[in-house]
Every structure is written in structure tokens, then in C-alpha cells.
Design a protein that fits this description.
The chain is mainly beta. It starts with 10 loop residues before the first strand and ends with a strand.
């Protein structure tokens, strides 16, 4: 039964003493003060289950810290999730009961708990995702718009996705993740076979491939919860988000920014860990694992990590300049900096390593009023990038200027952009090619397929 129940919303019941408890549902806290806090907490969860029209999973935590996995039904019935252990019985012998939406005055229902002394042994295996009906997958022809250069209109597989959503292609190009129209997240291999899927609540943002605890995961977030999956059929880890917070994926790992500049947290072990030691007048840029990169307007950079002293990182100037105009932005392994140049309102845009502060690429001097509007667009493998009109090849460290170029997307080492309202493709240092303005631009390349979207349908285009 338990394996067929979706992993959301995350529900926990914390029993503090004979009269007090706390129920958390999708990160929202519900304090309980009652002569029987178990009964009142279970009623609260069963009401949530009734709203969903299905049972929900919950974790009950005793006052001594011992926890037990449960399934709570809309009618108030409570089941223990069977977990292989060295001794038995563990939790619980639960008396099934019906609450009928309200507590019946004068009636007291007790849960009988039989458990051995000492902490319970850990489960032998992680919970796995429920089996769900797969989405409809079929080959098709992409005829609505011109195909990107190097690809054919033949799509070996297609799938409908949620309205106004977008797919995510894993950094290694081995899989594609989408939100489906029936409120699921589905992950496909390069040939369109479903690898795994799970139900998700309404209002989640598009999926993002990121890393948590040093491992690649797939993540989505809504206003109150961050969900992430390690793949291979493992259930989602759910992290409750503070009110009015936002999740930022600029770095290799998520960074949770609190409202009103009240700080930030990184994600580790399924929990939020506050970012410590933020220097005054500094801005948080991104997270890489448990480390957070911060900067003051004119430098320096800082790396902050829970439990570690703050690390200061000084920028090394490129040749011919010495003073920082300002730090502009950052992405994985990279920091964008304007250096003061000779001439009024002139700057030298340079890309630096966020590890040692050294310059990795230096663009030609540009007017700050123009370059401050340049968009930064690196490829996933960090081999090439476009910073507005400045095209960068990190393999050689060389840059080239493409006047009036506005980058739009990058696939491999091919950069798509516009020049005077015309759509072009270009590689750094190479010649540009004008293409039809309504050409479909790939979201990424998965194996032998370019992944494009039109009218809420993903197409996996074939090579010639």
C-alpha cells in the first residue's frame, strides 16, 4: 500500500509531552495542545488526507527522538509502514479508528506502542517511488517551425508537457526531465523510455538538474517546499522553505534566499543550513555544495561555509588594468567583473575563476552604459560563453567582439542570438550564420537528439 502513495506533501508529527505536539504539513507548522496530542495530531493529518482524497505518509517522532513511518487515511485509520528490522514488533500496534471529522466528546482513543529498548535499527533500503501510468510517447514530424541547423524534422519521440513549462536536459545529456499535464515529473532516457516518475503538487517550477551533498539530483520547488530526487527510483527528499523565500539555482547547488535580505541557507542532508558570516554590504551570488559565494560591490569575494571560517578571495587583475569598477555576476566556477579602463565610462569586462580569482578571459574595452546590459550565457560544460557582444572560448582563453550581438541560448558550442532583429548562430571565433527568425532553438542535446518545444510538446529531433 505505502509504495503506491505519493511522497508529497511531507508530513511529520512531533510529540513533545503529554499535552503538546506539532504537526508539519509541507513545511507549515500546526501546534497542538490537547489532553491527547496523538489523537488531535492524527485528526489534523486525516483531515489533510480527506482534502487530497487519498492516504498520506507521515513520520511520527516521539519525545525521545524515536521516529516511526505511518500511513494515515482520510477516515482516520492509521497503519505502520512495514520496515525490515532485527527485532519485532517495533511500531506500532495501531487501533484503526474513524474520526468522522470531529473529536467525539468523552471518547478517548489511545495508540498502543510496543518497541524494544534503544534506538531502532535503520531501514535496509530507501523508500522507492510508486508505479504510475506512463505518459503517452510517440514519434512525430516537427513541421510547425524551421528546425535548428544540423537536425531533421523527424522526432523519434515526443511527449506532452505541462502548459508553460520547459524541459531540463541533464548536464551529461543522458536524460530529459519534464512536468507532465497530469501533475507528474517524468524522466526519460535519450530514446524516450521512462526511467522514473513521481507525482508533484501544483505550482512547482520547471525541473532543474543540480547537486546536493556532492551528488547529482533533479529538483523542483514551489512556494513552500523544495523537492529533489537522486534518481534510480528513490523517493523525493522534501525540504520545507521559510515563508516568502526563493530558491536560486545560479550555482551548482540551490541557494535559498530569505525575504527582506534576511540571509540565506544552503541545502544539506535534507535540511536547510544558514549561511554564516556574511560580511556587511556584501551580496550572495550563488551556492556550490555547502559553500556560498558572496561579494562586495568593488570586491573582494568571499566563500562562506557552515562550521568553517570565512574565506576572502582577492581578484587578480588582467593585463593593463588594476582597479575594479564592480563585480557584476557569477555562475559555476566563474565571476564576471568590470575593471576600470582608460577613457570616460569605459570598462574592461573580464571573467575570473571563483576558485583562485585569476582571469580566465578578457574582453575588449567597452562603454559601461552598453556593457552593463550584456547578458551572460555560458554553456553547461563551461567551454564557451557569450557575454553580450563578447564571445569567449575558454579552451583557448581567446575572445572576439561581435557588434550588436544579443545571446539567446547555447547548445554545445553553438550560440544562438540576434543581430539587428535577425536570428544567427555562431561559435566563438567562427563565422556567424543567419537562420529563419522562428527557428526552434534546442533546450539541449540528449544523446542523438536535439530537444525542442512547441505548443507544450517536447520533440526529440533526429540527426540527418
Amino acid at each position: 500500500m505505502a509504495e503506491k502513495i505519493p511522497s508529497w506533501p511531507k508530513v511529520s508529527i512531533h510529540l513533545y509531552d503529554d499535552h503538546n505536539a506539532e504537526v508539519k504539513i509541507a513545511g507549515r507548522s500546526h501546534p497542538v495542545n490537547h489532553h491527547d496530542p496523538r489523537q488531535a495530531a492524527l485528526q489534523l493529518v486525516s483531515e489533510q488526507a480527506a482534502q487530497l482524497g487519498r492516504p498520506v505518509k507521515a513520520t511520527a517522532v516521539e519525545a525521545d527522538g524515536t521516529s516511526w513511518p505511518l500511513v494515515i487515511h482520510p477516515d482516520g485509520e492509521v497503519e505502520a509502514i512495514e520496515i525490515a528490522r532485527k527485532k519485532k514488533p517495533i511500531w506500532p500496534i495501531v487501533v484503526a479508528f474513524s474520526l468522522a471529522g470531529v473529536l467525539i466528546a468523552g471518547t478517548t482513543l489511545w495508540l498502543t506502542v510496543l518497541r524494544p529498548k534503544g534506538p531502532p535499527p535503520p531501514p535496509k533500503a530507501s523508500p522507492t517511488l510508486p508505479a504510475l501510468p506512463p505518459p503517452s510517447i510517440a514519434p512525430d514530424q516537427f513541421s510547425a517551425r524551421p528546425v535548428p541547423p544540423g537536425w531533421t524534422p523527424k522526432a523519434s519521440w515526443t511527449v506532452d508537457i505541462a502548459a508553460n513549462s520547459q524541459p531540463a536536459v541533464s548536464p551529461d545529456g543522458s536524460e530529459v526531465a519534464v512536468l507532465t499535464q497530469d501533475k507528474k515529473i517524468a524522466v526519460f532516457d535519450t530514446e524516450g523510455k521512462v526511467k522514473w516518475q513521481d507525482k508533484v503538487p501544483s505550482g512547482v517550477d520547471a525541473p532543474v538538474y543540480t547537486t546536493i551533498d556532492g551528488k547529482p539530483v533533479l529538483a523542483v520547488a514551489n512556494d513552500d517546499t523544495l523537492y529533489y530526487w537522486a534518481g534510480n527510483g528513490a523517493e523525493a527528499v522534501e525540504v520545507a522553505l521559510p515563508n516568502s523565500s526563493t530558491v536560486q539555482f545560479f550555482g551548482t547547488s540551490p541557494l535559498v534566499l530569505l525575504a527582506s535580505n534576511a540571509g540565506a541557507s544552503v541545502v544539506s542532508g535534507g535540511e536547510l543550513k544558514p549561511v554564516p558570516n556574511q560580511p556587511r554590504l556584501s551580496t550572495m551570488l550563488l551556492a556550490e555544495g555547502q559553500k556560498t559565494l558572496m561579494a562586495r560591490y568593488e570586491g573582494p569575494l568571499y566563500w562562506s561555509e557552515p562550521g568553517q571560517p570565512l574565506q576572502t578571495l582577492e581578484l587578480k587583475p588582467p593585463k593593463g588594468v588594476k582597479d575594479v569598477e564592480r563585480i557584476v555576476a557569477a555562475s559555476p566556477d566563474r565571476v564576471l567583473v568590470f575593471w576600470k579602463a582608460a577613457g570616460q565610462d569605459m570598462v574592461v569586462p573580464a571573467v575570473h575563476s571563483s576558485a583562485d580569482g585569476s582571469p580566465k578571459a578578457t574582453c575588449a574595452a567597452a562603454n559601461v552604459n552598453d556593457s552593463q546590459n550584456w547578458q551572460w550565457l555560458p554553456d553547461a560544460s563551461r567551454k564557451v560563453a557569450a557575454w553580450g557582444e563578447c564571445l569567449i572560448n575558454f579552451s583557448t582563453g581567446k575572445t572576439s567582439l561581435y557588434p550588436n550581438f544579443r545571446p539567446l541560448s547555447v547548445t554545445g558550442t553553438t550560440i544562438y542570438g540576434s543581430v539587428n532583429s535577425k536570428l544567427v548562430t555562431v561559435t566563438p571565433g567562427g563565422k556567424s550564420r543567419t537562420i529563419p527568425t522562428d527557428t526552434a532553438r534546442p533546450w539541449g542535446v540528449a544523446g542523438p537528439h536535439a530537444i525542442v518545444v512547441h505548443d507544450d510538446v517536447v520533440y526529440a529531433l533526429d540527426k540527418p
